[in-house]
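User: Is it possible to get a 3D structure for a protein together with its bound compound? The compound here is magnesium ion. I've pasted both below.
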Amino acid sequence: MTRILVIDDDDLMRAFVVALLEKRHYSVAAANNGLAGVALVTDSDFDLVITEIVMPDMEGFETIKHIRRHKPAVKILAVSGGGSSKGDYLKFATGLGANAVLAKPFEPARFLEVIADLLKSGPHGGDAPAPM
Ligand SMILES: [Mg+2]
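Assistant: Yes, that's possible. Here is the predicted structure of the complex:
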């Protein structure tokens, strides 16, 4: 089963994303800040981490750096609603190793599409090799 970790300090947003993913039968865990999220990533094997950028305790940039360093194979989707700076935030997140980025607010269908694409892509964000 595909395992996804959702890291977001916004309770409503986190609950919404978790419900959306569970409805698609993904196995989902959640954390409300980067520190808690990184602890979960270190202890278990997730296929994908979805992290918000602006959070207390450990923000998304540190979270992405940490995950990239310790779990190089896990896919990372960075999301941000950081007002007028969100474009810059997301560009920076890509530089730190996020495989995909998505600005809030997003359409649930688009969100699920990005996740499905990420999960079938190769370990470094490229497309998986075509079947022989
Ligand atoms: Mg936030």
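Residues 125-132 have pLDDT under 50 and may be disordered. The pocket of magnesium ion is lined by residues 9-10, 52, 54-55 (CB under 6 Å).
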